[in-house]
Automatic annotation (TrEMBL):
SUPFAM superfamilies: Clavaminate synthase-like (SSF51197)
Alphabetical list of InterPro entries matching this protein: Phytyl_CoA_dOase-like (IPR008775)
Protein name: Phytanoyl-CoA dioxygenase family protein
Species of origin: Petromyces alliaceus
Organism domain of life: Eukaryota
């Protein structure tokens, strides 16, 4: 029996991230940049109610975007929402073979011939440049509070990725040159060092840190519990968009306990409020519908709380 190579998974397990160049062609980049720009303009001008706002880092988000003079928004939420313009195009990317094939490798799954779907539709958002000012995220792991001690931190790391197995594949896909993500390679498999614990939340330099540089069409898949932060350079008010990065996650269907592990991280963003709607069907194939059904089974998200605060 021939063992299939898994270069993306090998890199993810070793480093906590894997950069994949040219996941999109230049023509695809141009198409998605155009519709992502429209979605951003719509959101900045009050036409789309789901967004991430400066200076908040984590949900829940305000219901009114701050003015551009205060930084405005840094993200557009729910690209797969039934009312999002160009939703069908965003869905074709999210459920595309080129994305799902990478996710399958990283999650260690193969498609079941009997029709059972191992993947779960999770989140698909857009990260954008704030206006008029820079915005920084503090050092964090997405699903582990920085306040925990070393023993609890190790327990949580092991429970989130037992035997190194991921429960989801999270990625950034750049439509503009992007050097926003900063990671500490290998930190997804260990507790923080003494230097990392003593560092300030916005420490400019941690030992071994790496800036993940992406060109348009490049993607980075990363373990969401790698120690990381983001630095987003502000753009001129009303000027051309300087950052448009598709930010998605695809889950792995598991047992009830596994589902609870992901429920808070996913449903805290509000996707459970609309994914069950009759008009939320994608119409682009049975697999997309099965993945959506797997998310619907997680519930609406009421009462799940939030992974992190701030």
């Amino acid at each position: 029996m021939t063992i299939q190579p898994t270069p993306h998974l090998d890199a993810l397990q070793r480093d906590g991230f894997v950069r994949i160049p040219s996941l999109l062609t230049p023509e695809e980049v141009a198409q998605f940049r155009a519709i992502a720009s429209k979605a951003t303009t719509l959101t900045r001008t009050g036409g789309w109610p789901h967004f991430r706002t400066v200076p908040k880092q984590f949900p829940p988000w305000p219901t009114t975007p701050p003015p551009a003079s205060e930084g405005g928004i840094w993200g557009v939420q729910h690209l797969l929402h039934p009312e999002m313009p160009n939703r069908a195009d965003f869905a074709r990317f999210y459920f595309s073979e080129k994305v799902l094939t990478v996710a399958e490798e990283l999650l260690g799954v193969k498609r079941d011939s009997n029709g059972a779907e191992p993947l779960v539709m999770e989140l698909f958002n857009l990260l954008v440049a704030p206006e008029t000012k820079d915005f920084e995220l503090r050092w964090h792991r997405d699903d582990i509070p920085e306040t925990v001690g070393p023993e609890e931190e190790l327990r949580l790391l092991e429970s989130k990725s037992p035997q190194g197995k991921q429960s989801h594949a999270q990625y950034n896909l750049a439509l503009c040159p992007d050097a926003s993500l900063i990671v500490v390679p290998g930190s997804h498999r260990r507790v923080r060092t003494e230097a990392e614990r003593k560092a300030g939340p916005y420490e400019a330099e941690l030992p071994g840190q790496l800036v993940v540089e992406l060109q348009p069409g490049d993607a980075v898949f990363y373990d969401s519990n790698i120690l990381h932060r983001g630095i987003y350079r502000g753009k001129a008010e009303g000027g051309e968009e300087t950052r448009l990065t598709l930010h998605g996650s695809i889950g792995l269907k598991g047992d009830e306990a596994d589902g609870k592990v992901r429920a808070t991280a996913v449903l805290q963003h509000g996707v459970g409020a609309w994914v069950h709607r009759d008009d939320a069907a994608f119409g682009i194939g049975e697999r997309a519908e099965r993945m959506r059904a797997n998310l619907v089974s997680m519930g609406t998200g009421e009462g799940v709380g939030f992974s992190l605060q701030g």
